[in-house]
């Protein structure tokens, strides 16, 4: 088995596995007692650039990067600050604290790196689904949504910039594989619960909307149950029947003149205006049952619309009771559902940021070797200077990867369909907190609500995902990704292998 080491210190050949204990011991021996390098769970004091106010949604893109430690990690941090913040205000920077995690073997790290890529994508999608469904439940009230999109009781920017590893949820004594499995199980549980709760709530909401829709719209289509009364009809008569007719407002006078002559057996002076909207009015008229067909035919010729309606008190009462029940049930479910969404959004978001921390740790060890000696840093680039920011970081860290240094930043890598912009000589992952721009409605698939609208959204999302994933598919393909990453890591770390 090949073992990872660095040019500074070679690992004893007897160590066939790089367990967490020996990795942390090696890391500790390489650090200064006064200047902790790399991950450090005890580093709770914030010495980074302060964040003043809540950032607007359009400015909540962060770059999580890492670079190998110099003599001390503070020197790595100082170099970044000088290059990006103190002189030219390209970004606002914070240290990103990652604890001492167990390392393992090269093969384990390479395989885990591929798995974490997929897990990152999955948990991010869960975070965005929960956020978007909260917006749907709160009916897109942005202020209310933002009030509930919190992580550990604080806004997302504050949580990320002051990130501390949750030792209780994700014990660092566990292997990296076990920690990733804990997060995967947590994300799957939230995703399944969301689908079930959303399906139930959407069905309830849809049934209520269907009833409400019947009581809305024009007189040509809407339900008449809440308009008419029992006294408007001749009931229980063997010979007489009351008809309901929709008459355009401009034809009121014509109706009054001719309704008695539309059939031979219309009761004189029996018409009555029951209700009107902005276009038309609903009139009642009483006639003999055997004249109904003739009356309908003549009314249609004169552009009067006869509504097929039979007054049934029991059915009307049942409809009103059903609407009341659905409305009450919706109110009962609303509060607990919002609370569940709030709690589980926090859980999913926290898990997602821990995945980012895991990815930085794994990738940093693979790139920079052992002992663990890197500084993780959180950058929020100035939106106007993002291109300049990339150039500065490239100049600062291009010596870390000679293969990246010789390739033009705008050039595509042949055969991979992967832009060089997605691979940098330093470890890099993006964190986008603008969660409501990405709409997923997976929970609607089972509920049947707004199916056509859902299909349109899914088509749009697939096209959008295709645009954003151009080149990434090759990276995330399990077979090709693993083989390519192994070759790249072994080439890069050959001087460090013993």
Automatic annotation (TrEMBL):
UniProt biased composition (Basic residues): 482-498
Keywords: Acetylation, Hydrogen ion transport, Ion transport, Transport
One Gene Ontology term, aspect cellular component: vacuolar proton-transporting V-type ATPase, V1 domain
Matching Pfam families: V-ATPase_C (PF03223)
SUPFAM superfamilies given in the database record: Vacuolar ATP synthase subunit C (SSF118203)
Record InterPro entries: ATPase_V1-cplx_csu, Vac_ATP_synth_c_sf
Region (Disordered): 452-498
Superkingdom of this protein's organism: Eukaryota
GO molecular function: proton-transporting ATPase activity, rotational mechanism
Keyword check for DNA-binding: no
Function comment: Subunit of the V1 complex of vacuolar(H+)-ATPase (V-ATPase), a multisubunit enzyme composed of a peripheral complex (V1) that hydrolyzes ATP and a membrane integral complex (V0) that translocates protons. V-ATPase is responsible for acidifying and maintaining the pH of intracellular compartments and in some cell types, is targeted to the plasma membrane, where it is responsible for acidifying the extracellular environment. Subunit C is necessary for the assembly of the catalytic sector of the enzyme and is likely to have a specific function in its catalytic activity.
Family note: Belongs to the V-ATPase C subunit family.
PANTHER family cross-referenced by the UniProt entry: V-TYPE PROTON ATPASE SUBUNIT C, V-TYPE PROTON ATPASE SUBUNIT C 1
Assembly, per entry: V-ATPase is a heteromultimeric enzyme made up of two complexes: the ATP-hydrolytic V1 complex and the proton translocation V0 complex. The V1 complex consists of three catalytic AB heterodimers that form a heterohexamer, three peripheral stalks each consisting of EG heterodimers, one central rotor including subunits D and F, and the regulatory subunits C and H. The proton translocation complex V0 consists of the proton transport subunit a, a ring of proteolipid subunits c9c'', rotary subunit d, subunits e and f, and two accessory subunits.
Protein name: V-type proton ATPase subunit C
């Amino acid at each position: 088995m090949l073992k990872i080491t660095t040019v500074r210190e070679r690992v004893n050949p007897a160590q066939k596995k790089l367990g967490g204990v020996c990795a942390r011991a090696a890391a500790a021996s390489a650090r200064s007692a006064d200047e902790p390098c790399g991950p450090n769970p005890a580093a709770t004091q914030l010495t980074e650039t302060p964040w003043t106010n809540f950032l607007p949604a359009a400015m909540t893109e962060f770059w999580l990067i890492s670079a190998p430690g110099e003599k001390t990690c503070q020197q790595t941090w100082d170099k970044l600050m000088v290059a990006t913040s103190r002189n030219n205000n390209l970004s606002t920077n914070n240290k990103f604290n990652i604890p001492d995690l167990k390392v393992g073997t090269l093969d384990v790290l390479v395989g885990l790196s591929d798995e974490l890529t997929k897990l990152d994508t999955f948990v991010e999608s869960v975070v965005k689904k929960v956020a978007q469904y909260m917006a749907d439940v709160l009916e897109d009230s942005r202020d209310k949504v933002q009030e509930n999109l919190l992580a550990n009781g604080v806004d997302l920017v504050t949580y990320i910039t002051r990130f501390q590893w949750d030792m209780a949820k994700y014990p660092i004594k566990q292997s990296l594989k076990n920690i990733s499995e804990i997060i995967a199980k947590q994300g799957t549980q939230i995703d399944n619960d969301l689908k079930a709760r959303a399906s139930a709530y959407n069905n309830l909401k849809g049934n209520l909307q269907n009833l409400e829709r019947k009581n809305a719209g024009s007189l040509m289509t809407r339900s008449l149950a809440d308009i008419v009364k029992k006294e408007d009809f001749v009931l229980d008569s063997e010979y007489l029947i009351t008809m309901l007719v929709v008459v355009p407002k401009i034809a009121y006078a014509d109706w009054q003149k001719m309704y008695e002559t539309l059939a031979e057996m219309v009761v004189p002076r029996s018409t009555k205006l029951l209700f009107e909207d902005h276009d038309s009015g609903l009139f009642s008229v009483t006639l003999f049952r055997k004249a109904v067909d003739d009356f309908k035919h003549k009314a249609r010729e004169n552009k009067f619309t006869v509504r097929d309606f039979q007054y049934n008190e029991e059915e009307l009462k049942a409809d009103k009771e059903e609407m009341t029940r659905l409305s009450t049930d919706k109110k009962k479910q609303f509060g607990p559902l919002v609370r569940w969404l709030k709690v589980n959004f926090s859980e999913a978001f926290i898990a997602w940021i821990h995945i980012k921390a895991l990815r930085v740790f794994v990738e940093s060890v693979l790139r920079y070797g052992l002992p663990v000696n890197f500084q993780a840093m959180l950058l929020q680039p100035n939106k106007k200077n993002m291109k300049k920011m990339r150039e500065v970081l490239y100049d600062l860290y291009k010596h870390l990867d000679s293969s990246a240094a010789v390739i033009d930043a705008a050039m595509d890598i042949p055969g991979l369909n992967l832009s060089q912009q997605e691979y940098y000589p330093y470890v890099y992952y993006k964190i986008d907190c603008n969660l409501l721009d990405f709409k997923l409605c997976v929970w609607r698939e089972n509920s049947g609500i707004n199916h056509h609208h859902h299909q349109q959204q899914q088509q749009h999302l697939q096209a959008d995902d295709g645009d954003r994933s151009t080149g990434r598919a090759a990276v995330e393909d399990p077979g090709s990704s693993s083989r390519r990453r192994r070759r790249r890591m072994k080439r890069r770390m050959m001087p460090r292998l013993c």
